[in-house]
Amino acid sequence: MSSVVRWGILSTARIGKALLQGIGDSTGNCIQAVASREWTRASEWAKEHGVPRAFGSYEDMLHSGEISAVYNPLPNSMHAEWTIKALEAGLPVLCEKPFTLNAAEARRVAAVAKQKNLPVAEAFMYRFHPIYGRLMETLQSGAIGKVMSIRSAFTFRLEDRNNIRWKKELGGGALMDIGCYCVSLSRLVAGKEPLRVAAVERRSDVDGTIIGILEFPGNVLAHFECSFEQYGRSFAEIEGAEGVIILKRPWFPGEQSAEFFIRKGEHEERVSVPGANTYRLEVEDFGRACQIRIPPAWSVDDAIANMTVIDSLYQSAREHHPVEVR
């Protein structure tokens, strides 16, 4: 295998530009190709971003022999299909969140990856920021006592109803697009999987807003809100028996610097952490998994678990009662 991981990007989606920068800034990785269903679009995108090769078909890129890893930022409804096709072509895949449409699809992807002995992971870049290592150390030190509850929000107004996030047939919806971050963070902080969940929603073709509650072992509760319909807000608060930790920018903590706050009564301590390009760190982690076959920082089992919680939240919103997570 080449000493450099040669990445191919499935589609010219806007999110691909962020990963493209991460690849360019990383060690041991390079961008080799981009594929679109229209060769003209792929060619123009490749020229604009300095990508060596363009393909007018996803299949052509996967079987070209020119790439050694795939980034899949296709619409949610296509994640499982094209991640499996890439794996079957012998290529590791970093798939954009949400990993699949549901947990059943996630398990199918995992089964193919196991059969092919290839790494596959969900691209939740926020987790790679050093602020989260520092946050978990702070929690484990007992700085706010026993963790009791986790609150988070990720909302913004998306008025363009032609955007793919509003399209049911493409796997749209607020929970799939941004609420998945809140679910992931809640699970990360709790360190366990929830026992039960409850959710309510505002829905047209897809959920424009969901408010969810997760009940974890040890009486830890999580509450989150995600929306395409509301004023933009992003925050996370971890409430303990003796204080609270506040993250004002949990999903994009900062490339130059980052911080969180520990509040106890009238006293507030600011904790500073070096900034980081989370896309670069994500690429380097997965690149190592491709090269030396060490597991990625977050396994495919984590992606399955996140989708399982999302499935349960949708079930609760649909049936109007709490449901057990299975």
Polypeptide structure, described:
By secondary structure, this protein is of the alpha/beta class. It has 2 domains: 5-125 and 280-297, 3-Layer(aba) Sandwich (Rossmann fold); 129-276 and 308-324, Dihydrodipicolinate Reductase, domain 2, CATH 3.30.360.10. The protein has 9 helices and 15 strands. The chain has helices at 15-25, 39-49, 58-62, 79-88, 103-116, 130-140, 174-190, 278-292, 300-319, and strands spanning 5-10, 29-35, 53-55, 69-72, 93-96, 120-123, 147-155, 196-203, 207-216, 220-227, 233-240, 244-247, 257-264, 267-274, 323-324. It has a 9-stranded mixed β-sheet with strand order 14-13-12-11-7-10-9-8-15. Helix 1 packs across helix 8 (278-292), helix 5 (103-116) packs antiparallel against helix 9 and helix 7 (174-190) crosses helix 9 (300-319). It is globular and about 60 Å long. The N and C termini lie far apart (40 Å).
Write the layout of secondary structure elements.
Blueprint: E1 5-10, H1 15-25, E2 29-35, H2 39-49, E3 53-55, H3 58-62, E4 69-72, H4 79-88, E5 93-96, H5 103-116, E6 120-123, H6 130-140, E7 147-155, H7 174-190, E8 196-203, E9 207-216, E10 220-227, E11 233-240, E12 244-247, E13 257-264, E14 267-274, H8 278-292, H9 300-319, E15 323-324
Parallel strand pairs: 1-2, 1-4, 2-3, 4-5, 5-6, 7-10
Antiparallel strand pairs: 7-11, 8-9, 8-15, 9-10, 11-12, 12-13, 13-14
